[in-house]
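Protein modeling request. Please complete all fields; requests missing the sequence field cannot be processed.
Requester role: graduate student
Desired output: 3D structure, token encoding
Chains: 1
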Amino acid sequence: MSMDANGFIQTHDLTKTYSTGSVEVVALREVSLSVGQGCFVGVTGTSGSGKSTLMNLLGGLDTPTSGSISVEGRLISELSNAELALFRRNTVGMIFQSFNLVPSYSALENVTLPLLFAGVAKSRRRRQAAELLESVGLGARSSHRPSELSGGEQQRVAIARALVNRPRILLADEPTGNLDSKTSRQIVQLLADLRAAQGLTIVMISHEEAMLREFADEIVYLQDGAVRSLETLRPTP
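Delivered output (237 residues):
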């Protein structure tokens, strides 16, 4: 992550404020960052530092109060609601601390959901979902419901679902927050492997700085909604 104007993902003076009654809360203030294509970038900071706000803005789940976001030179911060929906469907995959799986659906059915919304034919939906479950090590568990899977397996299903539309960007908001340390490392290793295999650009929020230092190319440290510092750990692809 740098200030390079040619970044794959670029934010400029990104600011988000919320009004609660007569009080205005600044969740993110003038954040200017650049993420290169194929990079694995970690974001860390204390609670309330603006991490999730940044992630929601990058994913098109929220809009900035001021400043801009661009992906490959396209201003995401100026898209209409319909255009944002397409951006979220086609360009970005998101995973969260809570797995957000449909309890009554099998692993395969959960992974096919984004393809259903995209109007993909049933046979192709099932084929793509089965391939992705195989790629995350769950080929033999495709018929199991979430209650029959461990936490790590559920997060693998969530990762497969996030990737089923073949996005170019994966945003991960505390994806290991509900997992033990061994499973957490396996999940982040899986993300790193998928990034290498598919050329994904990954932005991952985590409180676990040691894990980020092992896997990420760069780390951005947020404090009180602003960038406190940036650290490059290894050459980017």
